[in-house]
């Protein structure tokens, strides 16, 4: 019986390690996506403010603590580029997010199977590792 316990224990530890690693990676991807969503929103709102202004309006760009005079067209172009870049970054992160979510679901299934096979041992291991 000891060999089976040991096998169950190492299977559990493997599942636990995978779970920690995968959820960590998923959090990273979600944070990157959230940051890009923020960039996208800022660019969008800036464009909403810029577009209605007459073409000859003096517009300024902040660089650090200084404000530099820049043509409205140039500023709009920069914001449009930021919007496009953010959208592209979000789109490129999406497959990673989906892949990690799938992996996590698989690991959860493995855990459920292990729990069905060896409920007593798993309970023991879980209470020990908490």
Automatic annotation (TrEMBL):
<dbReference type="GO" id="GO:0016272">
    <property type="term" value="C:prefoldin complex"/>
</dbReference>
<dbReference type="GO" id="GO:0051082">
    <property type="term" value="F:unfolded protein binding"/>
</dbReference>
<dbReference type="GO" id="GO:0009409">
    <property type="term" value="P:response to cold"/>
</dbReference>
<comment type="similarity">
    <text>Belongs to the prefoldin subunit beta family.</text>
</comment>
<protein>
    <submittedName>
        <fullName>Prefoldin subunit 1</fullName>
    </submittedName>
</protein>
<keyword id="KW-0143">Chaperone</keyword>
<dbReference type="GO" id="GO:0044183">
    <property type="term" value="F:protein folding chaperone"/>
</dbReference>
<dbReference type="Pfam" id="PF01920">
    <property type="entry name" value="Prefoldin_2"/>
</dbReference>
<dbReference type="InterPro" id="IPR002777">
    <property type="entry name" value="PFD_beta-like"/>
</dbReference>
<dbReference type="GO" id="GO:0005737">
    <property type="term" value="C:cytoplasm"/>
</dbReference>
<dbReference type="InterPro" id="IPR009053">
    <property type="entry name" value="Prefoldin"/>
</dbReference>
